Amino acid sequence: MQRSYEKLLENNRRWVERKRATDPEVFTRLSTGQQPRFLFIGCCDSRVPANEITDTGPGEMFVVRNVANQVVPTDLGAASAVTYALKALEVQHIIVCGHYGCGGVDAALAGGTEGILDFWLGHVRQIARQNGDELERLPDQATRARRLVELNVQAQLDHLKDLSVVREALDAGRVMLHGWVYDLRDGLLRPLAEEPA
Ligand SMILES: [Zn+2]
Asked: Residue 58: which of 25, 88, 9, 10 has the closest Cα?
């Protein structure tokens, strides 16, 4: 096995040097606490790095990533992160960010995969089934996949609203929800939905 991971440690040391050069107190400041205004829920895909595509740095965004950017009611990990972000950090915006070219969405659309991943993607398959008529009318599989990426983002916003902690924050006007899609082909984020509108 190549020792490619060593590059990461070297990169880290250089990154620390660069950070300190422009902002000598950065790590002292970050070590005292965090006050991010955003919670970002995105996909694990290596081409969609949350901080990089939004040009944000450490401390600016609380991040949850999982395969196909889902908010599944039984996923205690995501629900805990949402609860902490709203209750403790008091984030003002929750962003669900899908991306075109999502392998998880493609697999769900193709009918499934194997084992535990298939179980996880079953939630996306269900969204495909619920929107079967609309997807069937589209001309080809690539167009259907892009549409399912968007439908998945919308469905995850709905799942967020099913969490009582989100419902309360929305009712109190303390948070906005955003549905975005990232396009791998041009690097741009496209807003799809917003609540309250
Ligand atoms: Zn993905």
From this structure: 25
pTM (predicted TM-score): 0.96
One domain for residues 69 and 16: no
Same domain (yes/no): 44, 9? no
Expressed in angstroms and rounded, the spacing between residue 153 Cα and the centre of ligand 1 is: 11
Cis peptide before 196 (omega within 30 of 0): yes
Query: What would the mean pLDDT of 167-177 be, rounded to a whole number?
Result: 98
Same domain, 57 and 67: yes
Q: What is the mean pLDDT of residues 43-58?
A: 98
Q: Ligand 1 centre and the CA of 4: distance in Å?
A: 24
Catalytic residue ranges: 43, 45, 47, 99, 102
Ligand 1 mean position, distance from CA 67 (Å) = 6
| Contact status, residue 151 vs residue 167, Cβ threshold 8 Å | no
What's the domain range around 42? 35-195
Cα of 15 from ligand 1 centre, angstroms: 27
Q: Any idea which residue has 């919308």 for tokens?
A: 154
Are both 54 and 77 inside the same structural domain? yes
- Do residues 121 and 107 make contact, with C-beta atoms less than 8 angstroms apart? yes
The Å distance, Cα 162 to ligand 1 centre, comes to 23
CB atoms near residue 134 (< 10 Å): 13
Same domain, 74 and 166: yes
Looking at the fold, whether 22 and 57 belong to one and the same domain comes out as: no
